[in-house]
Amino acid sequence: MTKFIRGIHNIKNCSSQHIVTIGNFDGFHRGHQVIIEKLKIESKYYNLPNIVIIFEPQPQEFFYKKVYRLTNLRNKIKYLYENNIDKILCVNFNKKFSSFNAYKFIVNILVKKINMKCIVIGDDFRFGYNRKGNYIFLQKIARKFKFNIIQITTYTNNGERISSTKIRNLLLQDKIKEAQILLGHPYVISGIVVSNKKLGRIIGYPTANIILVKIILPINGVYIVKVNNIFSYPIFGVANVNSVSTTLGYKQQLEVHLLDVNINLYGRMIDVYFIKKIRNEKKFNSIKQLKQQISADIIETRNFIKNNT
User: Which helix (H) or strand (E) element contains residue 292?
Assistant: First the structure.
């Protein structure tokens, strides 16, 4: 069973050696999946446990205010659990950690704490202060600290490099199908349903509401979706991703109206799978206009379901 470790301080110096990989794994796309598969192959070859090191927040989120993200921490961990990783180390990427140079990171964490036997990396891998650590740097010190390096060639689709950045850009352009081809799985957002102003229920279209904490999605507007974790089968719905005002400023919110289902979901964790965008977000001058538009969105969704299932 996969072991989740939150923070470097929770790692005891390992007596057993480990096969290691490091990265954001944002989206857990097909390129990431190749790295994880190779990690498991090497783990079996050496007969040693493997460990995936991820960061929270992701480094770009620490350095820059507005960074679009594909996968929240829960989904990222879920993907790694489903791939039967032995251990996941989630490092708190803070000011202190961001100042670690590449040498200190390798020696103090990978060698001394994790007891690294082999590291599996992509050919665009960078680490340490100012991202000065790379494959060449690893080669220079691998012999001294007695670990091996396996570099994975960039994974491509029709000759084009698959990357989280590419997938974010596709989603920003409302190209959900193209993004999902590169992901290798549906685009999904998960979260806990919270109580809200209940406007949807008042006007006859109740919604399950999820506040997206510490994450900015590369999507906005109204979508046809499927929702899991309610029944043993998925439920179709209409989802709206919008910005809402909170005591801490503006946050994105995901609202989902489930078709033909009216159930109390407060406190329930649900998975929302995005299928097709219907329209951009709009502002309405009256409740009547809002109700008319929601009705039209539901009709479009039902027609899509009829013609595509």
Answer: helix 287-308
Q: How far is CA 240 from the centre of its chain?
A: 19
**Beta-carbon count within 10 A of 30 CB:** 17
DSSP code per residue over 71-131: --HHHHHHHHHHTT-SEEEEEE--HHHHT--HHHIIIIIIITTT-EEEEEEETT--BSGGG
In whole angstroms, give the CA distance from residue 191 to residue 211.
Answer: 8
Please check whether residue 297 is in contact with residue 222, taking contact to mean a CB–CB distance below 8 angstroms. yes
* Architecture of the CATH domain 3-160: 3-Layer(aba) Sandwich (3.40)
Q: CA dihedral in degrees (227, 200, 197, 223; nearest 10)?
A: 40
pLDDT value of position 247: 57
Average pLDDT, integer, range 161-178: 96
